[in-house]
Design brief:
Layout: E1 7-12, H1 20-33, E2 37-41, H2 45-50, E3 53-56, H3 83-95, E4 100-105, H4 107-120, E5 124-128, H5 144-165, E6 167-173, H6 180-188, E7 193-195, H7 203-215, E8 221-226, H8 235-245, E9 250-255, H9 267-285, E10 291-296, E11 299-304, H10 305-310, H11 318-326
Parallel strand pairs: 1-2, 1-4, 4-5, 5-10, 6-8, 6-9, 7-8
Antiparallel strand pairs: 2-3, 10-11
Helix pairs in contact: 1-9, 5-6, 6-11
The protein binds 6-O-phosphono-beta-D-fructofuranose.
Residues 15, 106, 130-132, 174-176, 227, 261 line the site of 6-O-phosphono-beta-D-fructofuranose.
Amino acid sequence: MQKKIKTIGVLTSGGDAAGMNAAIRAVVRACAYYNVACKGFYRGFEGLIEGDFVNLSARSVNNIIQKGGTILKTARSDAFKTKEGRKQAYSKLIAAKIDALVIIGGDGSFTGGTLFFKEFDFPVVGIPGTIDNDIFGTTHTLGYDTALNTAIDAIDKIRDTASSHNRLFFVEVMGRDAGFIALNAGVGAGAEEILIPEENLGLERMLESLKRSKRSGKSSSIVVVSEGDKTGKNVYELADYVKENMPEYDVRVTVLGHIQRGGSPSCFDRVLASRLGVKAVELLLDNKSNIMVGLLDNKVVSTNLEKAVKGKHSINKELLRISDIITT
Ligand code: F6P
């Protein structure tokens, strides 16, 4: 017979993402609704290892749906990557009488969750929270939509300067291994060129395209570069390369950095977080485990946790073709 779940633990892990608080709120409120106790662990797996938690009631999560960051704080835990660390976390969970865990985070967090499930047969459900959107089994991760909106707002502003001064701007956006933000923000902000890790079209092509733009009468341009792009040059080296080959251009670089991670979540992220948070609790109460909840075809679905990390969430390369056409 399956064990009855009486207490659920929740934590946020990895890079913070807008919507994490909304997800915590949904988990806590769903627990209250189903008469299950809820405890929040601080600083992701670090808090699990130290047994650093707080009892969360429905009222503990008042007024956080609109807040960026995470009230539980977050960390990238090296200790949890070791068997010893995970053993300690397990003993703390047992001591705190936790029966199941909701992990809100990205691929690193889910890798830890998978190991934890395999080693201790401990029930876990993952909620995808990362601005990178690089998780298989969901079209959107928490924080991605908000990050996109922040990025296009920033690029729109940079465009004002680019066009007033006839300049070429390189704008670096986040995305260590994935170009979701660069590609979608690039198309959304009308960037002339978009460089992403998934498609290295080479530096020559970029130069040709910028020259074509100039010939067609454009006096300013924006190139959006994903931080993980594969040209072999960082954004400053890219700018230098263009300066050398197109001295007629006045070139500038802007790195958007962590402003993309923070801020109040978009309505989309709040609704997504609420749907995924409730479903995560319902699945655990239904004795389902070792899965991630995600959104596919606007339906909440579950995917094996390991598959969510190892599977490939491919970018839509058609968007590159569209981008070429609409920036002619
Ligand atoms: O994974 C989310 C992310 O924001 C990446 O896009 C970025 O490369 C990385 O985190 C930065 O991490 P940190 O804030 O730890 O420097």
